[in-house]
Amino acid sequence: MGLIHIDLFTTLDGVAQAPGGPEEDPEGGFEFGGWQAPLFDDVVGEQVETGMVGMDALLLGRRTYDIFASYWPHQDNGIAQLFNRIPKYVASRQSLNLEWDGSSQIGPDVVASLRELRNKHENIHVIGSLDFVQTLFAERLFDRLNLWVYPILLGRGKKVFAGGVGPTSLQLIEPVVASPKGAVMQRYALVDGTPGVGDMTEIG
């Protein structure tokens, strides 16, 4: 069965809204669209490309799909070639007209749809798609969580865990690496069970 990877760029206080550009998602009057650009460097770029090795499907929310579909078909670098080649699946409650080659909409039953996708693909990546990601977190419908945490605080904006999550245990599966501009990459795997508890007074 394939793996579902969630890839997110976030500030230190958990804001993941519109990292890529001013017009990406101005909802709520968000004025910091494109906050990632001044802090992006070659190390982060290499980490992103390495993380895409083996990717054989994209799973996106509607807003992120629209942004990708307007940009990547017109590019000719390695990432564009990958995105344009592999199947793209879109999660939305609305009926969509999907013009990007290889795109299709998943059914309204998210759990059943993801089970089907896992049977078809080895590595499905969810990039951005913050609203859709809240569903994946709440229902534990993911296998890997890849976070790039940037050394800024924005205070307001859509948060990574805005929708709340059930108690969930994760395992760090790679050494934490900081880029020259201070972005810290953290890769986690979902593990069985819920967080344990104990008594710190009994330690030491």
From TrEMBL:
GO process terms (BP): riboflavin biosynthetic process
SUPFAM superfamilies for this protein: Dihydrofolate reductase-like
Domain Bacterial bifunctional deaminase-reductase C-terminal: 5-172
One term of GO molecular function: 5-amino-6-(5-phosphoribosylamino)uracil reductase activity
Cited Pfam families: RibD_C
Taxonomy, superkingdom: Bacteria
Protein name as it appears in the record: Dihydrofolate reductase family protein
Organism: Paenarthrobacter ureafaciens
Organism taxonomic ancestry: Bacteria, Bacillati, Actinomycetota, Actinomycetes, Micrococcales
